[in-house]
């Protein structure tokens, strides 16, 4: 005991190193989750692997949706669902059932995507549903993996936002519109 208490500076340094190590280990867990996320909506993670699996299932069923559209629908899905649950204006219908039956082993994420798209295409949302959805969308805490761009709000379209870039991608060259030198 005397040897340990004789060197308070060493003891403080040892405790500091252990604490710093614990903080960096715990902080790394959140970082890994954020790196694997396609998006986070109000604290709920939409995993890259789920987006990829949904994309692959849709492609196998001959449904052509880009990955950023899959992410867009998955971001909007819980907000859309909450807005129509209040009014009861839409429940999964024949369109939903038909599409799901064409996707063997559809994952819960794929079902959520199909439900959101079927709801949007049904055009059965009431004005009150749309107002509730837009209010929820305005309050939502949404972060998107930069791979998919960023949330760009809009007053158009059925989900009132898109995922994309607001500035040109300087890494990918634009097509040259100048005539070729002769």
TrEMBL record:
It comes from the Bacteria. This is Lipoprotein.
């Amino acid at each position: 005991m005397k040897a340990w208490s004789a060197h308070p500076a060493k003891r403080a340094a040892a405790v500091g190193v252990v604490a710093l190590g614990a903080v960096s280990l715990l902080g790394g867990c959140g970082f890994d989750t954020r790196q694997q996320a396609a998006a986070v909506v109000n604290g709920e993670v939409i995993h890259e692997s789920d987006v990829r699996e949904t994309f692959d299932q849709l492609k196998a069923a001959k449904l052509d949706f880009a990955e950023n559209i899959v992410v867009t629908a998955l971001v909007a899905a819980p907000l859309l669902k909450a807005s129509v649950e209040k009014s009861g204006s839409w429940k999964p219908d024949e369109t939903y059932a038909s599409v799901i039956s064409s996707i063997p082993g559809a994952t819960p994420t794929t079902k959520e995507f199909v439900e959101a798209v079927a709801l949007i295409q049904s055009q059965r949302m009431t004005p009150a549903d749309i107002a509730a959805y837009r209010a929820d969308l305005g309050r939502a805490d949404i972060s998107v993996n930069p791979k998919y761009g960023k949330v760009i709000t809009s007053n158009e379209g059925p989900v009132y936002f898109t995922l994309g870039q607001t500035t040109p991608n300087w890494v990918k060259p634009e097509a040259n519109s100048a005539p070729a030198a002769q």
